[in-house]
Design brief:
By secondary structure, the protein is mainly alpha-helical. 72% of the residues lie in helices and 0% in strands. The model has no long low-confidence stretch (mean pLDDT 78).
Length: 123
């Protein structure tokens, strides 16, 4: 959908990097997983690098940032897609960890059921 609004594939790839910090924070808050300090530094560096690149790509020296952000719909759509993907990965991981004693194939069916229902009902 973001491509229909004029987002370039390179920008979509960069905005897809939002997946990593959303997943890291979600694992910490939802799944209560702990990460090493060096891993958090890596996530912070990746996030800052992504947003610095994004800022340099959309900033127009002559017209300013407000004019460049006037068509922010594709950026928002791409970021929302990455966030949705991260949340679905967290839900899938939560289902798997809650049912570790169950057969692998039963967990796979539960995860596929969850993904199917989220795609049908929009959340």
């Amino acid at each position: 959908m973001a491509f229909a609004f004029g987002l370039s594939p390179a920008m979509a790839s960069v905005l897809g990097k939002v997946y990593t910090p959303v997943l890291a924070v979600g694992e910490r808050l939802i799944l209560k997983k702990r990460r090493k300090t060096i891993e958090w530094f890596a996530v912070i560096i990746l996030t800052l690098g992504t947003f610095a690149f994004l800022y340099l790509q959309i900033y127009d020296y002559e017209e300013g940032l407000a004019k460049a952000m006037s068509n922010s719909v594709p950026l928002i759509l791409c970021i929302l897609g990455a966030c949705t993907s991260a949340v679905q990965a967290l839900v899938s991981q939560g289902i798997y960890e809650a049912n570790r004693d169950v057969d692998f194939y039963m967990n796979k069916i539960r995860i596929l059921e969850q993904l199917t229902s989220s795609s049908h009902y929009g959340g």
